[in-house]
Amino acid sequence: MTRATQFKLGVLGSGKGSNFVAIADACAAGRVPATIELVLSDLPEAGILDRARERGIRAEHLAPGRYRTRLDEAAERAYVAGLQEAGVDLVVLAGFMRILKGDFLGAFPGRVVNIHPSLLPAFPGLEAWKQALDHGVKVTGVTVHLVDAGVDTGPILAQAPVLVRDDDTPETLHARIQEVEHRLYPATIARWLTDTFGACARGPNLEE
Amino acid sequence: MTRATQFKLGVLGSGKGSNFVAIADACAAGRVPATIELVLSDLPEAGILDRARERGIRAEHLAPGRYRTRLDEAAERAYVAGLQEAGVDLVVLAGFMRILKGDFLGAFPGRVVNIHPSLLPAFPGLEAWKQALDHGVKVTGVTVHLVDAGVDTGPILAQAPVLVRDDDTPETLHARIQEVEHRLYPATIARWLTDTFGACARGPNLEE
Questions:
Q1: What CATH number does the domain containing A145 carry?
Q2: What ipTM did this prediction achieve?
Q3: pTM for the whole thing?
Q4: How many domains does chain A have?
Q5: DSSP 8-state assignment for residue B108
Q6: Looking at A4-8, A12-16, B107-111, B199-203, which range is the least confident one?
Q7: Which of A139, A172, B92, B139 is spaced 20 to 30 A from B117 at the CA atom?
Q8: Is the pLDDT of residue A161 over 60?
Q9: Catalytic positions of B, please?
Q10: Nearest to A142 by CA among A172, A163, A111, A171
Q11: Is B73 inside a domain boundary?
Q12: Domain containing A170: what range?
């Protein structure tokens, strides 16, 4: 792989960062033709910031502002500015627990991707693995989708099934879903980058 | 297999009867511990009636009455009477295009099973494979569930995934879903009969 095929990712997360680690490892191994330029978190203690710094990746806490479930206007501007300064081609949500509104999405049109622990449109929202178990489904899964202004409603890029076992608890089911997430998310990002920008072009930063 | 392990099924259908054929073949091969006692259809020309008669299985058209999407009260009584006289342990819906109401379901509590061509709760209702394709999902599938008073809402007995291909049309996707239906439905009926009545008991007709 040459430098000419490297795209730039920005990752947003609020948790331990297990999907970040899967993506970072896939980038390092050349399975995703990208580098992670920046990791941002709304929580100063989020493990994802430590996992990024361990890898020498720039990682910052940016306060979310005065709302509970989304970024306020000033915070949204700060996130957008950070990602734009880093020149990211794709914004990757990896357990980011804040809803992004139109101003953020308008800054990265069709360029924000999320992963959700169910087969959307089934079980949008929080703790989707628990919703699936409570509903009694026998098959659930993982969805990677582009983010739009709805909650878990954007165009689907990829899905993979996970079979529910009779003796599953929320914890055991969630663990198997996460294993699938860690394979599906890097593979889908790699395919999206290639499909969107072509295998050889650097897309928006072609001039570099 | 001894006669003591044979349960009795009644099948309702409005179409070609491909799921009926799969279940009848599984019964004949001993993979489902049951015999199909009676097939009823709301359409006199439905292929399912021919498929049943070819196999020597009693098959009748019973007029649905004055509504378009469900059986009217007199029709419902006629269907219930036919199935009860046949002594069926389980009512199997196989492409039956009429909604069953409380009086029918009350006559066979927890004993009516249906198959639906999606992973419920996603895409209830008609042409679920087309709904799935229109939504852009990458995984859909098949659900076998007990019937309650809602539309495609009863307790789920079994599900199986079907992967959507980039070049799928409604027809190609539906064909692959039906292949899965023809395996899942007999297997689920067999398991339900054994789980519900035990491997050796004849359940409600034990005295025979």
A1: 3.40.50.170
A2: 0.85
A3: 0.89
A4: 1
A5: S
A6: B199-203
A7: A172
A8: yes
A9: 116
A10: A163
A11: yes
A12: 3-197
